[in-house]
Amino acid sequence: MIHFHIVTLFPESIEPYLKASILGRAAEKKLVKFSFYDPKRFAVGKHKRVDQRPYGGGPGMVLEPTAVLKAADKALKNKKGVEKLFFATDGALFDASMAQKLSKKKDILLICGRYEGVDARVQKILKAKKVSTGPFVLTGGELPAATLIDAVLRFVPGVLGKIESLEGSRVASPEVYTRPDVLMWKKKKYRVPAVLKTGHHANIDAWKNSKRS
Fold this sequence. Notes:
The protein is α/β, with parallel strands linked by helices. It has two domains: 2-163, 3-Layer(aba) Sandwich (Alpha/beta knot); 171-212. The chain has helices spanning 15-19, 21-28, 65-76, 96-102, 120-126, 142-153, 201-212, and strands spanning 2-7, 32-37, 51-52, 62-63, 83-93, 107-111, 129-132, 182-185, 188-191. It is elongated and about 70 Å long. The two termini are 37 Å apart.
């Protein structure tokens, strides 16, 4: 079983996705486990704040390090060999190869930032790997976490209904079709490409490859 430990201020923003459909069934089958650690529960200081103004000026707020580190400590307690990931715009680009490697891990810690980010000392103290899910900025790390988890779990045996569902196990195409053969929409006909109905697998694979280029 692979266990994801997710440090986030807003577990309610990601938990419903992880409980739904294929990922939810994977959890029911004990193929994966999700645990959440909210830094607000580990807040320190008189006012129990988890965000502070950034040194050097600038807009927005930064997640202060102590609460995040305490949340991470809770996740890491008595565990060895945990893969620690820190979502950052300057991180290594997450891809299928990384997903496949992560699928072999037992425990994965995900640090989800908010606002202007997390104090950089968190990543350095934890020696966490910086990861980016794309050349864009989001309001939080929860969507990247869900994206990463979804991609990783596709490589865990038993999560997908058939191993052939993995793109690497078949010739995939960005275009897919199903019934009806002829779709009538607003007085116009839209047909399934004829080659897909021939049963000629070599021609079908060639068509699929042409759509990928």
